[in-house]
Amino acid sequence: MKIELLTTFLEVSQTLHVRVASENLFLTQAAVSSRIKQLEEELGVLLFDRTQKRLKLTAEGHKLVKYANEMVMMWQKLKQEVGVAQADTQQLFVGSMMSIWDIILQDWLQKIHRNLDDVHLYTHTYSQLELRRQIVSRLIDIAFLFEPPYIEDIVTEKVATVPLQLVSTEPSTHISQIKNMVMVDYGEAVNSQFIREYGDNAIIRHNMSQPRIALNFILEAGGCAYLPKQMCFDHIRKGKLFHVAGTQDYSRDIYAIYLAKSHKSVLINEALTLFSYLRS
């Protein structure tokens, strides 16, 4: 099976339109249709329902989407690994939950760039469940998440403990008086703890995946959110944010996971030692 058949299938599965897919892929409509037909013949199934005006994925087509994405990613990683190896550089594929990037990983990536100048970085964002699967499938080398899996052959290392505090754009505000409460996703442990602590006293107006988005939002629109202390320190000093008195502070541990038998173990360990938590 040629990889271009899968990339063409994925494009059509997203657009559900041969003409749009052909434009995106810079191919003729006939070429796109031919590739889809060839893929269906190789698999022995119909991937699209063509009885309606608009294409629709069949049950078999839906199943193929997941595997096709993984195969395309694996092929891209293989090409990059082999190609870059000839240039005497190393590759590091990093995956993380969305909310962790702004908390600790931006600075860490800069440290890798400054200290490991032979490393070529690739970054990806996934859900917590997807990160575990990407590690096991060897599609990424290191994953960062809040709740690490306890799986044999996966190494888990805590890389940071992040203090969280409730801050508001209004001084001397009680949590029950806040109109724009923004709930940031720090993982199930903190989310459920927050609900137990405040219950009906806090009316959640918005849910956001990234602390940085929540910070920018409340600075513009007003309101409050639990944010990492280091992220709001300067805003508190300038009087733009205020710690909400009488509220519970939380902390969140962040973990790195990787395969114990990874062929990049030396590189992974070098990269992780750039976290100050592991050096202390």
Automatic annotation (TrEMBL):
- The HTH lysR-type domain covers 1-58
Instruction: Tell me the GO molecular function terms.
Output: DNA-binding transcription factor activity; transcription cis-regulatory region binding
Tell me the keywords, alphabetical order: DNA-binding, Transcription, Transcription regulation
List the InterPro entries: LysR_HTH_N, LysR_subst-bd, WH-like_DNA-bd_sf, WH_DNA-bd_sf
Keyword flag Transcription regulation: yes
- Alphabetical list of PANTHER family matching this protein: HTH-TYPE TRANSCRIPTIONAL REGULATOR, TRANSCRIPTIONAL REGULATOR-RELATED
Name the family the entry cites: Belongs to the LysR transcriptional regulatory family.
- Its protein name is LysR family transcriptional regulator
Name the species this protein comes from: Pseudoalteromonas citrea
